[in-house]
Amino acid sequence: GVCGGLTRVFVERWPAADTIVSQLLAAMQQKKPVALATVIAAPKTFEVTVGRRALFGQNDAPAPKMDLGRWTAAFQADAAAAMQVGQSKLFTYADGALSIFVETPRPPPTLLIVGAGHVAQPLARLGAMLGFEVTVIDDRPAFATAERFPAASETIVAPFADALQDRPLDDNTFVVLVTRGHTFDAACLRIILNTPARYIGMIGSKRRIKAVFGLLKREGDILPAAIKRVHAPIGLDIGAETPAEIAVGIMAEMINLYRGGRAEPLSVALRRDARLPLHPGRVL
């Protein structure tokens, strides 16, 4: 009967589903790109595939087997493309009779705050509130503490460059430099600019930023095109003054990039017109 059919379906599919969930969790913990495909609807000839799932992993891993007849190759190519761009999508074939939803779950983005001063504290709180996994680095034991940064997943006490050198930075990492001096910024940028970090922001006055970029250019080990990756002055142009307001502007700029927003960063505005004041409120 109907109950017997349902029981048989669950018994047959549960071990595979359990394995897929385990593999999915493992991939997310390792921060590897992954795509979970689920057959939503199918024509009569493939009716048995409805509800089936398959997990797509790294490029060098064999594609999972989903017998979809002549649409198998097209689907596998579409699923691989969705995984690479990290975008969930519903694919349809057979004139719309075959529908497969491809989910591309990603681990939460990492917010790496380099420097544990006044701006870092509200920035860590906002980052955690917005779903970032927050790590704070500082070379002063009294500053990088769990008590000062309760929202952070990790606080690291180490020289800035050493901590960055030992840490993998991927395209899901957002780095904010809020150190106490331009020499620290330059040392950090020499490392960060050679990584695929999604966002690199640096706080500072026009004079400090010019000094950092000038130092990197004179040393010649960083190409000018790489320096343009740095969002400096950091944040969106919201006229921020206090540490909390500055943190809001920084987080807004990162969300703007992460979600594909259209707001203009302060660094872009200043490249267009270097005469713009960093703090318009003070001018008024």
Describe the fold and architecture.
With 284 residues, the chain is an alpha/beta fold. 40% of the residues lie in helices and 17% in strands. It contains ten helices and ten strands. The strands form two sheets. It has a six-stranded parallel sheet with strand order 7-6-5-8-9-10, sandwiched between helices. Strands 2-1-4-3 form a four-stranded antiparallel sheet. Helix 5 (182-192) links the parallel strand 8 (173-177) and strand 9 (199-202). Helix 3 crosses helix 8 (243-258) and helix 5 (182-192) packs across helix 6. It is elongated. The termini are far apart. Residues 1-15 have low confidence and may be disordered.
Instruction: Describe the main β-sheet briefly.
Output: 6 strands, parallel
- Characterize the overall form: elongated
What Rg is obtained from the alpha carbons, in whole angstroms?
A: 24 Å
| Low-confidence spans | 1-15
Order of helix and strand elements from N to C terminus: HEEHEEEHEEHEHEHHEHHH
What is the residue-averaged pLDDT? 85
Number of helices: 10
Keywords:
284 residues; alpha/beta; six-stranded parallel β-sheet; four-stranded antiparallel β-sheet; 10 helices; 10 strands; 40% helix; elongated; disordered N terminus
State the gist of this model.
With 284 residues, the protein is α/β, with parallel strands linked by helices. It is built from ten helices and ten strands. Helix 3 packs across helix 8 (243-258) and helix 5 packs across helix 6.
